[in-house]
Amino acid sequence: MPAQADVLVVGEAGGDGVAxxxxxxxxxxxxxxADRLAVRVSGLFLGSGIAETARRWGTAGADRxxxxxxxxxxxxxxxxxxxxxxxxxASVEPSVVVVPGTTAGRDYAPLxxxxxxxxxxxxxxxxxxxxxxxxxxxxxFGGRALTSIRFPGSRLAMATVHAGSFAKAEPDLTQPQVETxxxxxxxxxxxxxxxxxxxxxxxxxxxxxxxIVVSGGRGLMEPANFVLVEDLAETLGAAVGxxxxxVDAGWRPHQEQIGQTGHTVSPRLYVAIGISGAxxxxxxxxxxxYIVAVNRDPDAPIFKIASFGIVGDVFEVVPAxxxxxxxxxx
Length: 330
Fold this sequence. Notes:
By secondary structure, the chain is an alpha/beta fold. The chain has 2 domains: 7-180, Rossmann fold (3-Layer(aba) Sandwich); 203-328, TPP-binding domain (Rossmann fold, 3-Layer(aba) Sandwich), CATH 3.40.50. It has 8 helices and 15 strands.
């Protein structure tokens, strides 16, 4: 890696103009790497009409902030986003580039890495610096094992961050130097354009932005009993999630699936109802700030990662919990 060069981190705005959750985690990872390398963090924020959002995001750990505010970056399509990142790399000349592990990030990061002949490690959960060289840790074999990837020599190192693996950076920690970053697009960059977006859901049903998620597993015994999850979620103002086993059984739609082959969520509170805690599910929610598990099996793996555990019958515990929360809310 180039010596004494910045770490460049990308931030993305969602359709609502708010910084995507993965952007805050990527900034945390970039700050950790930069501190170990004793270099600065340069942030590149992509979107349209996002100046204030970008500034707030930048104060969560960036020393320099490039704001790419352009209508053609709306939706973070691969072509425009790749062009913006490639030009930012040419401007900043970083040693490391950190990209959020969003659907968009997984699209444009490989494009840029291929164009620049840079090394790319995907879905990283941890980083280390040894003798000035970056090492990235990422899951393999469906999350059953971890592997370390060492970036050699002076080549640019790029990495995407696995959602839920790092804490969300908090604003008002730094006062970055703010610059407007104008991107030049070619016709190839703009071959795909965004016409409109259709939300996956409204309000509390959106798993990717929900502050609270209540999920159910096979411990509910049959699909009709999922009403326990729905009632608790409604009381808490939470989104509803499910395990793969539940989805495969046809109890719930795939859009609610959380885990390795579903959504990765990192809410403030995750409530697991009748979920044993298989590794394939845990990788999709273990980044939650607080995890509350209800299961009648005291040896269920979910309790190993839970902040609070309730050993008991979900058909007794959950209705009582829902009733108490309703009473407390008046």
